[in-house]
Write a structure and sequence with these properties.
By secondary structure, this protein is α+β, with helices and mostly antiparallel strands. The protein contains twelve helices and six strands. It has two domains: about 240 residues, Multidrug efflux transporter AcrB transmembrane domain (Multidrug efflux transporter AcrB transmembrane fold), CATH 1.20.1640.10; about 70 residues, Alpha-Beta Plaits (2-Layer Sandwich). A hairpin with a 2-residue loop joins strand 3 and strand 4.
């Protein structure tokens, strides 16, 4: 409580902007690992995207996931994906011929003591899955365009560019987590992706709004460079960003770790993993990626270069607050 109050009042100043090399290096490592996962493993696309057959039923007695998987393997079905939702089992397979589908329906009914009509079958064609994928990409593209237009009008193009880079950063890392973990990508996952984009954008807008307000006062006689002023603004919004993120992450974590493991709500993990990872990465990117990138772009403007040169020549950029003039001095010399 005391630490939060001191941060809000500006009594403690974390040099986020001055440590831009650290954040860029960390993000570079995370992005490299994520891209490697996407290239090596790829995304485990759900049946809604690549097509396939889905069998669902509720056994009369307790069975294990491994037992259900063996039932399908014994009938020649390759790589069945077994999921549970409470006491109900859901098995996703490749697209099966109608004869094989009906045979599996009878095998399931006999093996697990249920009526044949209690075994639900859903077949999804690959063409329909491709249509879903296309619409998802169009939706993502429209979202990105809307963000660029909004931020360019509400703030400025350089803030829009920094926010877009942070959003792409969040998407790639979240997708990389899915690639390495093998979690299935379903329409619920896409909803989670769109949600974290909106959440990350909200966090960036809060920070940028404060930066815009603080840096608007900078002039020829200012005692702060753009990076120092931006760092001050970031510190003043830090507690708000962290509190908002914590409040949002806690219920998502409950869904992911308690709902899917203790309660067996397996269908929720597709959505909750995207939200959980995306919210954490989104909070990090709005503070440690979007803001330093914005400062890098803005410090190249003649107005702020002049301020940086003047403060560097007088030693005014080496105060205890902000980024201590380290980055500003480098820009001035460049």
């Amino acid at each position: 409580m005391g630490l939060g109050r001191r941060l809000y009042r500006g009594e403690i100043d974390v040099d986020f902007v001055g440590k831009w090399r650290l954040w860029y290096s960390l993000s570079g490592i995370l992005l490299a690992i994520s891209i490697a996962g996407l290239l090596i493993n790829g995304l485990n696309l759900g049946v809604e995207f690549k097509g396939g057959s889905v069998f669902s039923w509720q056994p009369k007695s307790a069975v294990s996931i491994e037992q259900v998987r063996e039932t399908f393997l014994d009938e020649g079905v390759h790589q069945p994906i077994v999921q549970t939702a409470g006491e109900r089992y859901r098995v996703t397979t490749e697209t099966l011929p109608e004869s094989t589908t009906l045979e599996m329906q009878n095998v399931i009914a006999k093996e697990y003591g249920v009526a044949v009509n209690e075994v639900n079958i859903q077949s999804i064609g690959a063409s329909w899955g491709g249509e879903v994928s296309t619409k998802a990409w169009w939706g993502l593209a429209a979202f990105m365009v809307a963000i660029i237009l909004y931020l360019s009008m509400a703030f400025e193009p350089k803030m829009a560019l920094a926010a877009i880079v942070a959003l792409i950063h969040d998407l790639v890392i979240t997708a990389g987590i899915y690639a390495w973990s093998g979690f299935e990508v379903t329409p619920a996952t896409l909803l989670g992706f769109l949600t974290i984009l909106g959440y990350s954008l909200y966090d960036a807008v809060v920070v940028f709004d404060m930066i815009k307000e603080v840096t608007a006062k900078l002039g020829a006689t200012s005692k702060q460079t753009y990076s120092m002023a931006a760092n001050d603004a970031l510190n003043h919004t830090l507690i708000r960003s962290l509190n908002t993120s914590l409040v949002a992450i806690l219920p998502v974590a409950a869904i992911l770790f308690i709902g899917t493991t203790v309660l067996g709500a397996g269908t929720l993990k597709d959505l909750s993993l995207a939200l959980f990872v995306g919210m954490i990465v989104g909070t990090y990117s709005s503070i440690c990626v979007a803001t330093p990138l914005l400062v890098t772009l803005k410090e190249r403007e003649p107005k702020y270069q002049a301020i940086a040169r003047r403060l560097a020549s007088t030693g005014g950029g080496k105060g205890a607050k902000g980024s201590k003039g380290s980055k500003s001095a480098a820009v001035a010399k460049g």
